Amino acid sequence: MMNTTDPNNLKIVKEVNRRGILFAIAHQPATSRLFVGASDFMVHDFDVMAENPESVEYAGHESYVTGVALAGKHLVSGGYDGRLIWWDTDTKQPLRSIQAHTRWIRDVAATPDGRFVVSVADDMICRIWDVASGKLIRDLIGHESRTPHHFPSMLYACAVSPDGRYVATGDRIGKNIVWDLSNGRQLATIETPIMYTWDPKARIHSIGGVRSLAFSSDSRLLAVGGMGQVGNIDHLGGLARVEVFDWQRGERTHEFKGDEYNGLVERMVFSAGDKWLLAAGGDNAGFIKFFDIAASKLIKQDKAPMHVHDLALGDAGETIYAVGHGKTVVWSFAA
Hints:
Layout: E1 11-27, E2 33-38, E3 42-47, E4 56-59, E5 65-71, E6 74-79, E7 83-88, E8 93-99, E9 105-110, E10 116-121, E11 125-130, E12 136-141, E13 155-160, E14 166-171, E15 175-180, E16 186-191, E17 196-199, E18 205-208, E19 212-215, E20 221-227, E21 240-246, E22 251-256, E23 264-270, E24 277-282, E25 286-292, E26 297-304, E27 308-313, E28 319-332
Antiparallel strand pairs: 1-2, 1-28, 2-3, 3-4, 5-6, 6-7, 7-8, 9-10, 10-11, 11-12, 13-14, 14-15, 15-16, 17-18, 19-20, 20-21, 21-22, 23-24, 24-25, 25-26, 27-28
């Protein structure tokens, strides 16, 4: 049987230009409909494969929209304003708006069954929300609010396991925690300190952090994405870096240090059956990478048309929808 998701067959089939920065994406199953959070304070709802994609704008946030997640017919968006907004994707109207965090919401994820939504923010709290009622289920608190050098930290990333049992969170200094979603118990702590760079001389400042997390399809492995050590912290000049862990054993199973592309790994996803791990991100430019987990090697890497901030796989895993600086891009694996 022919492999329909061979990264070597990857090609761009659509590019849609848009002013500003597109930070977050959610894909509606069985369609080419996308929901995109942007720097214009809007969520944009559009069919990316239409001849002339025109978006319906969801207005409600007061600043950048940096996280979106689909939970059934509900879309939940989060942003710099600390708000979570529930939207009905049928009527395209807001259902509720909650002041969910006191600082910037960096990421939003939904459980596979659509019952819960997870949000992480720079108040260093991960929160679990009931989608149907909008009620807060619990707080997950375990990340330090200050870096070792006494500056504010950030809680950049979260991911929900495919079996819906676990939540992972990752912060500025490279600390990652895996939680039991049902009771909020901490199950594992994973350190990735190389993803944090501190400049004690020129800028007295830090850069980096864990920017993306992904569970394997069997929920056994956790991939952590960021950037290696940086020489000049005024630029994203570190090599894109991915580490993979058997989190239940506390063992690092893979280390992909990067060899060509600089910048942050902003989003990762495992293919069905974990044939490969996809990672994308960028600095001033962008990149897309595929890793063979079984062989522990890079399969393919290529330049992206923009710094990629977020991506989603199509239903059969044969299409990649990605957003970033000024563009939405669709890749296909079709030979």
